[in-house]
Request: fold
Amino acid sequence: MKVLVIQTRYGIGDMLIFLPYLKAISQKSGVKISILAKETSKANELFKDETFLDEVIKLDDNNDKISGFLKLTKEIKSKNFDKVFIFNGSMRYRLLALFSGIKEIYQYPFFISKDVIFQTAKVFTENYVNKVLSTKPNLNLNPKNINEAKKKFNITSEVKNIVLGISASGPTKRWDIENYINLAIKLNKIRNCKFIIVAGKEDQEIIDKIKNSEIGKNCFSLESLSIQEILPVIKNCDLYIGNDTGFMHISSALGIKSIGIFVDSPAYSYSGYSDNIIAIVPAGETLESTTHDTLGKDKISFEEVFEKTNKYLVN
Reply:
């Protein structure tokens, strides 16, 4: 039997939120699964050491959207899938499954929108596997790679190793870089800390601000590494502090306590699925009210971030 899962959300965090359900479908079906996913989700790199995955079929400019429908249909049909699980309510992917000759089709209700991402996925998958599932992802890595990263980057228990997630998908989702610099300085006065900066090459300006600051000598950046190379480095760390980014979700899935600063994204949808994520929201907002267009980056309490960081460094 061959099983396809269609999960076409854009981000790394989205893909990791679906991890428990991908594993459950594979286990129930008794086979490794294939995933149809966007390249931006980095599924190939995230799941390299997992055992549930057969292959990732990439959605890109050549086969995505209406213009690539026929090409994608031909590709999927050639793989002779028996079952498909469609984690969205799009009519297009229903037609893709039908035209590809897939006999068993499981899909969200058509045109579903504004759902809580992990809750909808949980109910959908539980209906198939017929058991209660945890919403908490657990991302597996090769222990050899973890140990090699520890040695390569000189990560020791003599200091607290803190991941700084300073990047974001847009400026409205990013807590100001000066806040991160001041936070790092204040933390380092209490205990010896090493700060691991996770951001993309397009964030070079804010990376350089940290490197050139008073705390710069205690920092190193991973902007030149791939996601696959970054994973074992994060696994060796003590805590994540940062914006709602893919790196927050990676840290959480690797079992690292993650303090997520939600200033302009759905806080409950992207933190409520795991008790590893400690969400901080703008003053006057709640987990449920903080969403897109909250525009609250200037309403985050510095003291709250510091106090919670200090608390979880001690624990």
About this structure: The two ends are 46 Å apart (CA to CA).
